[in-house]
Fold this sequence. Notes:
Helices cover 28% and strands 30% of the residues. It has helices at 52-64, 66-77; strands spanning 3-7, 10-13, 26-31, 34-39, 44-49.
Amino acid sequence: MPEISSFYGIDIYMYDESEGQHNLPHFHAYYAEKKCVIDINKCELLDGSMSKKQLKLILAWTEIHKEELMKDWNIAMQGRLTFKINPLI
C-alpha cells in the first residue's frame, strides 16, 4: 500500500488493485495508534477511529484534494503506481 501523503504526523495510504479490490473510492489514514478509512466522494469516515482534531485535518485535506484523490483511486484500481499528493500545510 503506497503512501500518497503525510502531514502533521498523519500518514495517508491507498491500496492498489493487487492488494485487494474495493468498491468505494477511499483511502486509509494513520496517526499514532489510530487508523481509519475515509470515503473520498463523501469526505467522511467509513471505518475505524481517529482523534477529533486529526479527523478534521484529514477531512479538510480530502476536500481540498478530492479531484487528485479520485485520479489516484482510478490509477490504483488499474494496478498502477499512485502519485504523491501535496500535504496539508
